[in-house]
């Protein structure tokens, strides 16, 4: 594309942008309205109806805590509100979240059905060893049996949501020893052993 054509496109976009300020967003947002005001604080369920039932939340809570249990350094995933985060995320009316919603609801249903079939109890009622026995079959998607491919895809996605929710909390950042936005009096660069490990020293 030549420079003249590029300038024409830029000027055309600049002319269209002021039209109510939302022309491009409106095309993307058809069906659910405008995006939330990110400068406001909203309560769970205030922006859109939440998805998970009470029973599904119990299963979601148990599964979060299998993925990130409490230890001597930090609380469990559920203790810092990760289930609320997941419910809010999958309930959002965007295309990606709608796909994730179906996968998560199906996966929680599968987890509970499997627990009842094998152990005669819901997943949340099982002890840790039985919960892990179910999860171990689907926790590594590339090696999951073909019959469990969908369940393994669910687990991989749910684990990502759990980790994302947990490590974006103050407790999660502390667990990572994240020091972003903290001024340092001095910085001497990476330690020598790190530089050697990556082959630059």
Annotation keywords:
9 helices; mainly alpha; 2 domains
Give the number of helices: 9
How many β-strands, per DSSP?
0
- Residue stretches low in confidence (pLDDT < 50, at least 5 long) are 1-29
Please outline the major beta sheet: none
Rg calc = 23 Å
If you had to describe this structure to a student in words, what would you say it looks like?
The protein is mainly α and 201 residues long. It folds into two domains: 35 residues, no CATH class; 123 residues, no CATH class. The chain has nine helices and no strands. Helix 5 crosses helix 6 and helix 5 crosses helix 7. It is globular and about 55 Å long. The N terminus is likely disordered.
In a few lines, what is going on in this structure?
With 201 residues, the protein is mainly alpha-helical.
Can you lay out the helices and strands and say which pair or pack?
Blueprint: H1 3-16, H2 23-29, H3 54-67, H4 82-91, H5 95-119, H6 128-136, H7 149-166, H8 170-176, H9 192-197
